[in-house]
Amino acid sequence: MDNFSALLDGFATVLHPTYLLWALFGVFIGTAVGVLPGIGPAMAIALLLPLTYSLEPTAAIIVFAGIYYGGMYGGSTTSILLNTPGESASIVTAIEGNKMARAGRGAAALATAAIGSFVAGSIATVALTFLAPVVARWAVQLGEPDYFALMVVAFVTVGALLGSSVPRGLAALSLGLFLGLVGTDTLTGQQRFTFGVLNLADGIDVVIVAVGLFAVGEALYVGSRMRHGPVKVIPVEKGWRTWMKRDDWRRSWKPWLRGAAIGFPVGTIPAGGADVATFLSYASERRLAGRERRKEFGKGAIEGVAGPEAANNAAASGVLVPLLTLGLPTTATAAIIIVAFQSYGIQPGPLLLQSESALVWALIASLYIGNVMLVVLNLPLVGMWVRVLRIPRHYLYAGILMFGALGSYALNFSPVDVLLLVLIGLVGFFMRRYGYPVAPLVVGMILGPMAEDRLRRSLAISQGDLSYLVTSPFAATAYVAIAVLLAVGLWLRRREQATGVAVTAGDGDDR
Amino acid sequence: MRSDNGAPEAPTTPGQPTAEAGPPPSDAPVRAHDEPPRRRWGELVLAAATAALGVYVLVAAGSITVPGSTNTLGPRAFPYLVGGMLVAAGVVLVVLFLTGRAGEEEGGEDVDPTVRTDWLTVVLLVVALVVHVFVINVIGWPFAAAVLFAGAAVILGARPWWRAALIGLVLGLVIQVIFGGLLGLSLPAGPLLEGVPFLRG
Question: Which of A42, A149, A457, B73 could form a disulfide with A475 if both were Cys (CB 3.0 to 4.6 A apart)?
Fold first, then answer.
């Protein structure tokens, strides 16, 4: 029960009024960026990384945890209420939730998404509380080649599974690995790919790359093909009564629990993060629905909102397990959180729970509290989020550009950084335009230097014997797992695309 | 920012600096999704550039100095690997393009899949960013930010332009007060606001 008392200490820290305010700030910003199209939690955290220069670590990590969780809540509001056809295949909630909203049941959809997120998020946080120390204790025994194997797993799955095309994912990943190479080699002190530019000797700042790709790239891409005219938000009926009827509760609670059970494990393995979890939950809800209910799928079945939204949040907690215990980011947001840790000189890994025990448990405690704040903040304030959703798009993207420029300028107060930002933003624009996923690039850039380090240390230990990399039982298992994960992941994605096509086809028939 | 979607679209004010950002001037009214999939040469350029970068990485990796003491994997090995991956991915993508399998462009809530790419907007947005970079040290951050915000908003279709300018100015000053004054970020306030105490940390 050592961990239990540590968790209680964590709560004692987080319940301090200052930290409560920071947590509130985090979940508030997180929900706002989740609601706003065009900004995700990865970008929001990247933009707020300059905060780490003036905040102490605990406060900053609490803010980032709040943004991370809040982004998951806010996203459902957007997909349920925003009336934009065309993107439904990628976000399953949009299929059912949007249909429910159009049928006048938007409040019920929002409520089941928010309460489901709360239930699953809480369950998953409990699971994280118990699992993280176990994994960390086991991970201490891992050697250098085992870590290298884990990172290869992350590279392969992130490169192959994030995005719609394997070669494009790998191209983005390699580009990220290249950007990670720029700078001074840590082991020998040699400069690599710095083109003799002094500024590049310390490497390219991840903040500039992340903000450039996510913020500037997105703004340029949307600007190039913007949907003009007023934003059409589906109106939501007011009042507590209409939120969820007894029947909605009856139909929602099982999908919530199943969503949590699916989402958390999927989140913990490097298999593409929350997207895969939401899709799996959607597919299983459809299969488990009775014959009559199954007909409702595609036309606004509440199970199709409750399950995937719960899975989404549970996966978000699951992602924190490899992040905190192995230092392994499996999504772009997790990679940016690692950067936040690093800017305090903290390296997430198996020793984190011992060396930074107070910080980690405060983080976990803040997840419990953030969850409560979010469910309180989301349901009654939905009117405000709808207003946020209605911000005219020209102001929204102008604001994104301005904050992006601020975030990169504030790094060193050097205009050169902002020029670099524009350049990377253009790269992001072309990547989006031609279907290259940007998340593998960010993950590759952050994880690349770590992987190189592990690889070279392994070979230094083995004195150049390459077989050392695969002979440890764990590493061997990991390489076998890559093959299995890839096969399963690609199969899942084919199914996902098939479902998306089927639903889109049904969509066309309605009109 | 206030939502003002109820306001009717004001007609373009004459004498406005960067107002030519409407629909693209040249293209005939052909809808992108009606025509057969076009070859988009930019995609080939991107794929080829990936491969070319890989070749460069492979070549440049050979000139990284290896200190004599390393008897195992030195600083060149990983760059060779990365260069090889770039070349492989680039070549596969070039082949995919030439065999007619183009990428799916990314969707999004605010992206209209039926319109063609408006290159003018992209160029003007980049210009706004570059102007912002060069005026920071001349007129100070809050005003440079206002220039960027107002410029980008007008380019993206905000009318009337003075409302965008006003919002930009207020946003710039508020951020200056919060980040510069309260959080102690040393954003340059500029010559106009020099000596205003609460703008600097």
Answer: A149
| Residue with more model confidence, B16 or A83 | A83
Answer for the pair A407, A207: CB distance below 8 angstroms, yes or no: yes
ipTM of the complex: 0.83
pLDDT per residue as tens digits for the range A129-178: 999 989 988 888 888 888 898 888 888 878 776 666 788 889 999 999 99
Q: Closest residue of B to A404, CA-based?
A: B129
Structurally, chain A folds into a number of domains equal to 1
Rounded CA gap, A198 and A203, in Å? Answer: 10
Asked if the model's pLDDT at residue B36 lies above 70, the reply is: no
Above pLDDT 70, what percent of chain A? 91
Query: What residues does each domain of chain B span?
Result: 41-98, 119-199
Q: Judge whether B129 is closer than 8 Å to chain A, CB to CB.
A: yes
Nearest residue on chain A to B82, alpha-carbon basis: A174
Kindly state whether B96 is in contact with chain A, defined as any CB-CB distance less than 8 angstroms. yes
pLDDT band, very low/low/confident/very high, at B128 (cuts 50, 70, 90): very high
The amino acid at B103? G
Cα B162 to Cα B154: distance, rounded to the nearest angstrom:
9
Among A95-99, A358-362, B16-20, which stretch is predicted with the lowest mean pLDDT? B16-20
Contacts of A278 (CB under 8 A, 6+ apart): A91, A92, A93, A263, A308, A309, A311, A312, A315
Q: Which of B64, B109, B132 is closest, CB to CB, to A78?
A: B109
Asked if A272 and A489 touch (Cβ cutoff 8 Å), the reply is: yes
User: Six-digit token pair at B185?
Assistant: 């970020």
Mutation for A interface: B33, B78, B161, most A CBs within 10 A:
B78
Query: Cα distance from B104 to chain A (closest Cα, Å)?
Result: 5
pLDDT tens column, A46-105: 877 777 767 888 898 899 989 888 888 887 888 888 765 434 334 677 778 888 888 888
Tokens linked to A50:
């300059």
Nearest to A154 by CA among A323, A41, A315, A271: A271
Q: What is the full DSSP assignment across B21-76?
A: -SS-SS--S--TTTSPPPP-HHHHHHHHHHHHHHHHHHHHHTTS---TT--SS-TT
| Residue A125: domain span | 2-510
Contact A221 B175 (CB under 8 A): no
Q: Are B96 and A82 in contact (CB < 8 Å)?
A: no
